[in-house]
């Protein structure tokens, strides 16, 4: 399924929330919004205000710019979310584990 900006942003917020181990209710509480607001953002139903985006990024350790990556528009939302989860996971690794992950990913990408 091709995606628009709201869907891509929502998929990335959901991936960030899940990577952080938070429920929608917990995230909503952290940023002083309702769980319904979080749900609507994650499902691509609404475009959050900049203040909400900043609060989400702060709560989830995301960068505002990565929520708006042009290359993700029109791509499958599931793939965008999985790639984003990988990036978030990589950020948590030690340098030595990151090197192992890099080599593993490169080996997977190069297999024919």
UniProtKB/TrEMBL annotation:
Keyword terms of this UniProt record: DNA-binding
Protein name stated in the entry: Helix-turn-helix transcriptional regulator
Domain of life per record: Bacteria
Pfam families: HTH_3 (PF01381)
SUPFAM superfamilies: lambda repressor-like DNA-binding domains
UniProt keyword annotation of Cell wall biogenesis/degradation present: no
The keyword Cell wall biogenesis/degradation belongs to this UniProt entry's keyword annotation: no
Residue span(s) of domain HTH cro/C1-type: 13-67
